[in-house]
Amino acid sequence: MIYGIGTDICDVRRIAASLERHGERFAEKVLADGELATWRARSARWPERGVRYLATRFSAKEAFSKAVGLGMHMPMTWRACEVGSLPSGQPVIVLHGALKEWFDAKGLQAHLSVTDETDYAASFCVVEKIQTK
């Protein structure tokens, strides 16, 4: 059964401006540790790719927060929600701490899709209640 649906579109230029204004602190606020390491590596090789990576993670977390109905209110925090990848490349939501406990207690499962183009990153998230027999 569908618990919630969330979508978000993010202007990559806005993320670039935030990085310019606040520096790495902005990325440290939004990204979990694993994401931060990936962002740093991508940014070092190709800065534009690093900005798009950050924009897709920002968008995915916004979409997830909408799908679970919390917005950016506890236990939902930027760093408690991580966007990982399966070996196939499919993006997945990985939760930590109180957010993971809340999500698991409700018996929920998330499905995520992310995409980006030059100026925009977009995400779509469906959260479902796991059926128990």
Total helices: the number is 5
Rg estimate, integer Å = 15 Å
- Name of the CATH class: Alpha Beta
Provide the CATH superfamily.
Answer: 4'-phosphopantetheinyl transferase domain
Q: From N to C, what is the helix and strand string?
A: EHHHHEEHEE
Coarse shape:
globular
Biggest sheet descriptor: 3 strands, antiparallel
CATH topology: Ribosomal Protein L22, Chain A
Q: How helical, in percent, are the residues?
A: 40-55%
Mean pLDDT: 95
Name of the CATH architecture: Alpha-Beta Complex
Order of neighbouring strands in the sheet with most strands: 1-5-4
Strand content: 25-35%
Integer count of domains: 1
What structural class do the secondary elements suggest?
alpha+beta
Termini distance?
Answer: 13 Å
Number of strands: 5
Which runs of at least 5 residues are low in confidence (pLDDT < 50)? none
